[in-house]
Amino acid sequence: MSELTDRTAGIAANLAAVEERLAAACGAAGRPRDDVTLIAVTKTFPASDVRILADLGVRQVGENRDQDAAPKAQACADLALTWHFVGALQTNKARSVAGYADWVHSVDRDRLVTALGKAAHRAGRTLRCLIEVRLGEGEERAGAEPADVPRLAELVASSDGLTLGGVMGIAPLSGSPDPAFASLAEVAERLRRDHPDASAVSAGMSADLESAVRYGATHVRIGTALLGIRPPNR
Ligand SMILES: *Cc1c(COP(=O)(O)O)cnc(C)c1O
Questions:
Q1: Which of helix, strand or coil describes residue 152?
Q2: Cα–ligand 1 centroid distance for 54 (angstroms)
Q3: Per-residue pLDDT of the chain (234 residues; tens, 9 = 90+)
Q4: Residues near 229 by Cβ (< 8 Å), separated by ≥ 6?
Q5: Ligand 1 atom at minimum distance from 43 CA
Q6: Whose CA is nearest to atom 13 of ligand 1?
Q7: pTM for the model
Q8: Which residues line the pocket of ligand 1, CB cutoff 6 A?
């Protein structure tokens, strides 16, 4: 096999395994499979992998660094995919991200809302924003405190160029993810009382998608299980 068909076969097998896990997790939770959207997190992997995934039917891709994501999105512009920005975001990158991202999962402070709103408006685009919620105690985790979510949500909802999509969370690295995803589900439920359309719950990665689906995730962000091991800290 050529290198490309080799890589295609590998990703296809990984995707089938992830699909099987998702189907099982949805079944166990009594949820229809189409309740949960699979986002392929392609960070550190080349645009050729994005093409392979697109050929296999994956339309949602996630990236966490603008300097990698921007050229990749441009190289794949013909595929008309939906791009999710899932990483920590500096306000000075808002303008670039607003040029290609459809969703931003990591909205965690007022200044970022203002910067994204201005950038989206200027680009004539609409960004669907998820409020990233800090899960777990005392850890070096990004995200807004749960108590700040209503204010941030209001700010997003009232910003030109932005739509409030819901919430996002990352479970702590150690221990069971269940308590973290349970508290994210509570924050999400509270948010929906004021913003019924903000129904997205982005939770779950390669290691913990089952727990996330059990606690109501509507979007899972899967990297390693689809594309393989990355360099450390990416
Ligand atoms: C890298 C990353 C993922 C994917 O993680 P895997 O464990 O490789 O599935 C999901 N969400 C965010 C925010 C990430 O940075």
A1: helix
A2: 19
A3: 688 799 999 999 999 999 999 999 999 999 999 999 999 999 999 999 999 999 999 999 999 999 999 999 999 999 999 999 999 999 999 999 999 999 999 999 999 999 999 999 999 999 999 999 999 776 556 899 999 999 999 999 999 999 999 999 999 988 999 999 999 999 999 999 999 999 999 999 999 999 999 999 999 999 999 999 998 888
A4: none
A5: 1
A6: 86
A7: 0.97
A8: 41, 43, 64, 86-87, 170, 205-207, 221-225
